[in-house]
Amino acid sequence: MDEILTYAAAEPTGAVTFAPASGLLGSVWLLVAIPLVSAAILLLLGRRADRWGHWLGVGAIGAAFVLGLTYFLQLRGLENKQVQLSLWQFITVGDLKVDFGLLFDPLAAVFVLLITGVGFLIHLYAVEYMAHDEGRRRFFGYFNLFVAAMLLLVLGNNYVMLYFGWEGVGLASYLLISFWYGRPSAATAGKKAFLMNRVGDAGLAIGIFVLFAQLGTTQYDEVFSGVGALSQTTVLVLGLLLLLGATGKSGQFPLQAWLPDAMEGPTPVSALIHAATMVTAGVYLIARSNPIFSANATLQLVVVSVGAVTLLMGCLIGAAKDDIKRVLAWSTVSQIGYMFLGVGLGGGAYALAIVHLLAHGFFKANMFLGAGSVMHGMNDQVDIRRFGNLAKYMKVTWLTFMMCWLAIIGIPPLSGYFSKEPIIATAFERGDWTSWLFGGAALLGAGLTAFYMTRLFVLTFHGPARWTEDIEHPHESPKLMTIPLILLAIGSVGAGFLLSTSVPDWLTATAGLGGEHPEHEPVLAHWLITALSLLVTVLGAGLAWMLFRNGTATEPQPAGVLVTAARRNLYTDAFNEAVFEKPGIFLTRALVFLDNRGVDGLVNGLAAAVGGGSGRLRRLQTGFVRSYATSILTGALLVVAAFLAVQAGWLA
Amino acid sequence: MSNFPFLSVLTVAPLVGALVVALLPRRSPDLAKLVAFAWSLLVLVLSVAMWIAFQVDGDRFQFRESYAWIPNWGVNFTFAADGIALVMLMLIAILVPLVILASWHDAESSKRSVPVYFALLLVLECTMIGVFAAADVFLFYVFFEVMLVPMYFLIGSYGGHQRQYAAVKFFLYSLVGGLFMLAAVIGLWVVGGKTFDWQALSQAEIPTDTARWLFLGFFLAFAIKAPFFPFHTWLPDAGGAAPAGAAALLVGVLDKVGTFGILRYCLPLFPEASKWFAPWALALGVIGIIYAALLAVGQNDLKRLVSYTSIAHFGFIGVGIFAFTTQAGTGAVLYMLNHGLATGLLFLVVGMLIARRGSALISDFGGAGKLVPVLAGVLFFAGLASLALPGTAPFISEFLVLIGTFTTNKPVAVIATLGIILAAAYVLWMVQRTTQGTLNPALTEVDGMRRDLSLREKVVVAPLIALIVLLGFYPKPVTDVINPAVKATMQDVGRTDPAPEVGSVQEAAK
Fold first, then answer.
1. Which of B144, B195, B351, B456 is the most exposed place for a label (fewest CB within 10 A)?
2. ipTM for the complex?
3. CA distance B37 to chain A (A)
4. Number of residue pairs across A and B with CB atoms under 8 Å?
5. Domain span holding position B357
6. CB-CB under 8 Å, A223 with B428
7. What is residue A645's three-state secondary structure?
8. Is residue B337 scored above 60 in pLDDT?
9. Do B295 and A229 touch (CB under 8 A)?
10. Could you read off the pLDDT of B132-152 as tens digits, one per residue?
11. Does residue B208 belong to any structural domain of this protein?
């Protein structure tokens, strides 16, 4: 393959240099160490820590948040806002030198604040939510392990560290999805998540191999400085491999199927891992690797296409689901599709995607926790056809959920408007006919989002009550659960404008995200795009309100082709089963048969022939001592004969 | 301290211990166990002293000793250790005491003598140390063959279902390989100047054709031992029938003699033949990775499953050796150590589960995590180490093998990387079917399943878990020992690492 690569005379991009971390920032490793130690304590102490373990878990994340904030403020005052720190030599073999090293820069800093900030609130909520679960200590152990791995993922200063954290969050996600491992569905969902993630991980791993084979390094600064020297083919292959990793972790097409099943885990898990943080790791990977992705137009086109396909897919399926957590899960798939669209568009849209990621972290975490609060008051019911009229009984949950519903569908001045609308607008600025394609998809997605989120909101909180008979008085959740809801809702309401104005500026100090970006003329005027996106939002929401304000049937209804397809996840699961699962099982069975009969039989026959007749192998009960003796004797005789031969000079 | 004859003392010490234990009266099994355990600890202490005495920057071979044996034929008791052998000796010294502790009650169910069981374990330790410490080709061959005897009796006398079939199969396979090697050893003696001394032989000029035949003789023996596809079918039978402790040693150490032999004898003695054969060896390795992993997914017997995972892992080691880069080579040697720790742990834990349930069939379990949560947790950890999760030692070795192979052979590395997906499949499916899901009602009726890990069992697993995590975060002490030996081996083969394809980054930055 290498021979046919033509080395394009690309302009070398500017060298990337990171400053060494000094002073307070030299202790940035504490961010990973604190949650990790806490997790180890919780998991190793066992039942002895049952009484206070959850508070240790909450405290560890709280401490990490305070530290993160301190480091963030420290970083603001620095000239070179990218500081790195090498802790110890991790792998040093030949030319391969990988340190256990961390990088704290503006991109890492916003992720640290999101992970520890939102993470802290969700930990707090989980203290109450998991209060009656006998495994609460174990839960907080896994939860802290997740935060530690996620922080390592975003703080590493090379691709091996990223991979380390990447697989670590995969493990934590597996443990938390199958937390109630006694349920077969939870165990299966956890395994499915891990396996699909590993498919992506294999892509990421090969990507790292390519980096080493081509550039002899996996360090971010050296890789980004060297990208310009790579051939276009190499960049494309490398980028596609990294993208495969990103789609696995972020639940994007074609590796999206595990994410909705991941809702088998406790609801705080869905909020933290499968909405706010881990699933955005793919976006992080692409944003972090922006010098690679920006270096090839075909690569960017693929990323944009993945984003567009996934965002529409998530909307369509989300509109057809009746399980509150699964609707939110498909909504997450769709919203991350917007982020992929953003990072794929490149240039200034990297920052827009990160802004949307942060805003989404707030409102989606809140909605999952809100869903948990609803389930808490409704005997763990998850079917939205069985809710209705809950606004009256759960005032705080209702109000906070409403804020986030308005935020996600993009009603100004809530955060979704400031974060999503610019991505739609940028999609119209690609400069050729694809502007219409991707801009149109993003616009259509906005309308669909408004439809399915309004359906979810109305069916849950308004209209007539359609509760199952065991529900008499739905109750609001305790304070420990509602306070995080309120804080996250405030974030969703207030942070939008703030984020959209400050974050892009702040991110310019990240490698590759600064500098001027060539902008194409939009195919539509910006005000027109804004007006259109508001229009489709109002249309979608209005339609859903009309259709569902009087409730809905509590039993499955016959449906047309599109809705049936959406209910069955657009047949993607059926496809996976038919193409991978069934042939895989068949292959395994066939090989087991073959190995026992064919390969074994063949080699057995050979061995038996040499070792003293195949009859011995079959009549072992009586023959084994003789067989053993014969073998030894044969061996000994051969040795003697050989030496005699040598002595006599026959072989010399 | 460096003048102390570490290697000969280490080889003889377990043998003396074995005699002492075997002579203890059959009526006092507990005394025999204690003596055997104490003796193996002594060997461990001595090995640690040797590890400390080993000079990382020193000669390739250290602790060299030589005593005349059959002067007429030039056969000597020559011992010497390079970094590769040192790591394997350390692995033996760590695993044997843990295996003895883990096997505390294993021999009681058999009608045979308990002291003899532990004496056999010590004899096995003697032969394993000898085979890695030998620097005389004939001495190596003798240990290589004698090693079969204690293992044969461990499987055949103390094993489980179908133990005699498995023991004979194991013996015959190894013997056949050994005969090929014997022929090659003699041939080598003839063309190599009538000496068995490794260092003298490594300087010998051997005609290309002869060298290729001799290489094949050695390689066949080692490929059966390791085992590589398609010579692997004895391992699931032997691993499935052996007592868990013996299985841990069989797969954890004994099989590494094969890969060690390739590194020590095939590559340096027949460099041209090694390069000539490398494509075939890589193909066998890669087929083994995928094939054995698929078979592991389909197993319903815990010990057979672990055996098949090992065959897949040996595929990685084989690929690492024949990729001829320092990363892949160091990865392969590190893999030999890490696999010994991880699969050793996995075999021991699986043995604890089987001892409780009285069955090795996965379908006889289900939901066991509810009954024995700590045991289930350790099983899961051992599984994670087996699938090479970052943070466990096997990740480093697998990563090194793959990244080192990628620089010289991209297709092989890419196919091998797919093995990490299959590894997740066989581990997680096994964990799901044994410890997760609805509780199998039959389990609650078995008394053993109500006891979680005992203190003795915790003492067995804790050091292995600690080592796996420690080496997963900080492998440098071990890679520093392995590195010079692997570099020297690559020099013997005459291969150097390829330079980065786009020039070094430092230059590009300027």
1. B456
2. 0.92
3. 27
4. 233
5. 270-498
6. no
7. helix
8. yes
9. no
10. 999 999 999 989 988 888 888
11. no
* Tokens standing for residue A615: 């009859």
**Residue from A92, A93, A582 to probe the interface with B (highest B Cβ count within 10 Å):** A93
Going by pLDDT thresholds of 50, 70 and 90, the confidence category of residue A630 is low
| In chain A, where the domains are located | 2-567, 577-648
- Given a contact cutoff of 8 angstroms between Cβ atoms, the answer to whether A323 and A368 are in contact is no
pLDDT-derived band at A637 (thresholds 50, 70, 90) equals low
Question: What span, in angstroms and rounded, lies between the C-alpha atoms of A139 and A495?
Answer: 30
Q: Which of A442-456, B10-24, B52-66, B440-454 has the lowest mean pLDDT?
A: B440-454
Q: Which residue has the higher pLDDT, B162 or A173?
A: A173
Give the whole-number percent of chain B exceeding pLDDT 90. Answer: 51
Closest CA to B33 of B101, B113, B98: B101
What pLDDT shows up at residue B475?
Answer: 94
Which DSSP letter does residue A550 get? T
How many folded domains does chain B comprise? Answer: 1
Mean pLDDT of A198-227: 92
Q: How far apart are CA A337 and CA A225, in angstroms?
A: 29
The single-letter DSSP state of residue B264 is I
Q: Which residues of B79-106 are buried (b: 16+ CB within 10 A; e: fewer)?
A: bbbbbbbbbbbbbbbbbbbbbbbbbbeb
Choose among B326, B417, B500: nearest Cβ to A213: B500
Of A187, A604, A628, the CB nearest to B437: A187
pLDDT for B373 beyond 70: yes
- Quick one: which H or E segment has residue A300? helix A297-320
Strands A19-20 and A83-93: parallel
- Tokens coding A163: 């991979």
Q: Has residue B199 been placed in a domain?
A: no
Q: How far apart are CA A487 and CA A362, in angstroms?
A: 9
The token duo for B463 is: 């050091």
B184, pLDDT greater than 60: yes
- Report how far residue B188's alpha carbon sits from residue B182's, in angstroms, rounded to the nearest whole number: 10
The whole-model pTM stands at: 0.90
Closest CA to B133 of B46, B211, B231: B46
Which residues in chain A are contacts of B167 at CB distance < 8 A?
624
- B161: tokens are 């279902």
Closest by CA position to A76, among listed A515, A509, A513: A509
Q: What is the DSSP letter of B106?
A: G
> Tokens representing B400?
């090194």
In this model, does residue A427 exceed pLDDT 50? yes
Does the residue B484 lie in any domain?
A: yes
Q: What is the pLDDT of residue A29?
A: 92
Model confidence band, residue B386 (pLDDT cutoffs 50, 70, 90): very high
Which candidate from A15, A191, A638 shows the least CB-CB separation from B429?
A: A191
Which of chain B's residues have a Cβ under 8 Å away from the Cβ of A617?
165, 168-169, 172
